[in-house]
């Protein structure tokens, strides 16, 4: 189960389950590890998600991640996280890009500029499309709030269009909507 949604997986077995349960819970039961086999198990469908009802026309079935809330890829700008840190009271050491678990953190853009990126190319050939803001931190302007609701956002969810190899330090090219 993931967020009350059944997901078919290959169970990694009793030995792994026992080790995880003891390590995480200090107990001999309750944790299982499943492996999502894309060649065996069909993917979740967009029609079954709340997002499909909110008008994101670029969102495709294959953009849905197996275990993620929505997408397997999330991008944010370092400047957006830095801007967030200026708005939070107290100890700033806990405000970092790693706290938001993005797959890609980019440098050199203005805060929240990533919201406007439609297509994203990383390195020589890997191409993604922005299909939705990622619900994480700040409220959106009134124009998009009817679609997103009151959920705060930071970063963008991406769908993979052209697979490739991505490395730290690769150039990032964007096409704004």
TrEMBL record:
MF (Gene Ontology): catalytic activity; molybdenum ion binding; pyridoxal phosphate binding
UniProt xrefs under InterPro entries: MoCF_Sase_C (IPR005302), MOSC_domain (IPR052716), Pyrv_Knase-like_insert_dom_sf (IPR011037)
Entry superkingdom: Eukaryota
Pfam families recorded: MOSC (PF03473)
Domain MOSC: 38-175
PANTHER family: METAL-SULFUR CLUSTER BIOSYNTHESIS PROTEINS YUAD-RELATED, MOSC DOMAIN-CONTAINING PROTEIN
Protein name per UniProt: MOSC domain-containing protein
UniProt organism field: Timema tahoe
């Amino acid at each position: 189960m993931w967020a009350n949604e059944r997901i078919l997986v290959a169970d990694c077995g009793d030995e792994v389950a026992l080790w995880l349960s003891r390590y995480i819970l200090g107990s001999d039961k309750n944790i299982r590890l499943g492996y999502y086999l894309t060649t065996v198990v069909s993917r979740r469908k967009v029609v079954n998600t709340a997002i499909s009802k909110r008008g994101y026309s670029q969102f495709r079935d294959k953009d849905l991640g197996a275990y993620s809330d929505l997408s397997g890829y999330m991008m944010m700008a370092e400047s957006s996280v830095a801007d967030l840190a200026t708005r939070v009271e107290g100890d700033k050491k806990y405000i970092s890009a790693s706290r938001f678990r993005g797959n890609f953190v980019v440098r050199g853009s203005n805060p929240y500029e990533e919201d406007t990126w439609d297509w994203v190319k990383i390195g020589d050939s890997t191409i993604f499309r922005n299909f939705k803001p990622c619900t994480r931190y700040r409220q959106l302007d009134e124009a998009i709030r009817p679609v997103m609701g009151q959920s705060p956002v930071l970063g963008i969810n991406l769908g993979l269009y052209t697979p490739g190899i991505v490395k730290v330090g690769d150039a990032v090219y964007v096409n704004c909507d």
